């Protein structure tokens, strides 16, 4: 645990130097999605239960925080794989590969959560009290499970991908999948019934729908969160297998 | 003989490393005594850096076994890595944090707490007159200073085994002196393994020298022992007033016992074990406007060049 703390401290050191750059990015990213994707969709989507601009807030938060979490995860693994980069000092240290991967996992989830908090403040200001503090806490639980899954995914993808170019394609694909297939920005109900029935069984979709349900004061489906966590654990174990096969070789 | 302990600190048994079908190390075995300084010399790509990376636990060998202080490096990697300090050849400092944080972080990763690590980092930076550079980013410093910072980082946790890959490369004489002074202080307390191409430093510093060639150690021993192995092999250089003529080269070919004759403009260089052979060459040289001669016993550099260039036979 000490080494994990050391690596988290390193991130704090970096934040100390780059806080303005990072904070600016964390503020601009959700605003861009709001202005460039949600506002145009607002013109064409009308929901019977709620204003679309309000309904899309959890979706925007999910997309932003997952993208940040994913990118940090993949970037860290890329640096770790690169034999000429400074991340080699972690491999030279007594820490085991499992501890190292767990540390990077925590760091990527931590950045995802940071994006979630910054985005929540901004979007709540724009949409004037879109959710209460209690709803915010419930949404945080849902987003955490989603981020834990995305964090594991990022490590596996980091080991599979070999170039930064391919990472850009995966980024775009991930953005499109979360936005338009997982129902973050497009309501699942608008999809053909057969497809929406199928999608509603995917744990990540359930988590996104849970967040929208919390906004509508409905009860979330916690079993979906649990399944999402199981998926995260399984993926994390897979990532450990990759790591032990590909690092220090 | 220096008073280092004959107990083995590092035992390497038949290790091999193959990368993308190319054999980097092959069947390499060596034992390194506790508290000794072992210098590894070899041409570029001979596997020196790879050997150090394997010892540091950064890279896993494909075959063989390594025991460091009796611990198998494969099964007790964490403990082994905690015992070693490694200074690589390339700059691998973190660009996102300052010099002091770089050094301190390495110490913390090796088990020191933050306060201990910060204090030791500051003390070491003071020892190397780099305290003014503690809070700047390394990329604003000269390459020499960066190398010194890498050296400091490798010793922050006071490791028992120090692995240094070309430690004085790109370093000015002032810092070079400080590094050797620091290494001198550590001698007999730590096992120090240095990969270098600086023969003068190897001759001055090493208890034992190994010449790595084609992925294996070709010669290994103290400097005296290595030189002794040449059995009086001497290097001769003859300088002429004019470029050496073809007639002379033809005559030179008759002397079959001279080794590695090399004509370079007005200069002839060759090795020979028998002094008479030199006198015979000298005799014919007098007819070709000889201007000067130079003789010296085989140095480590001669030994290395001879060995990597097909041997002295």
In short:
Chain A is mostly helical. Chain A has helices spanning 2-44, 52-55, 57-81, 88-92, 97-126, 133-160, 164-181, 193-199, 203-215, 222-246. Chain A has 10 helices and no strands.
Describe this structure in words.
The complex is a heterodimer of chains A (249) and B (313). By secondary structure, chain A is mostly helical. Chain A has one domain. Chain A has 10 helices and no strands. Chain A starts with a helix and ends with a helix. The model of chain A has no long low-confidence stretch (mean pLDDT 93). Chain B contains 11 helices and 14 strands. Chain B has 313 residues and is an alpha/beta fold. Chain B is 35% helix and 29% strand. In chain B, a hairpin with a 2-residue loop joins strand 9 and strand 10. Chain B has 2 domains: 221 residues, 3-Layer(aba) Sandwich (Rossmann fold), CATH 3.40.50.300; 64 residues, Alpha-Beta Plaits (2-Layer Sandwich). In chain B, the strands form 3 sheets. Chain B has a 6-stranded mixed sheet, with helices on both faces. Chains A and B meet through helix 1 and helix 4 of A and helix 2 and helix 3 of B.
Features:
heterodimer, A: 249 residues, mainly alpha, 80% helix, B: 313 residues, alpha/beta, Rossmann fold, Alpha-Beta Plaits, 2 domains, four-stranded antiparallel β-sheet, 11 helices, 14 strands
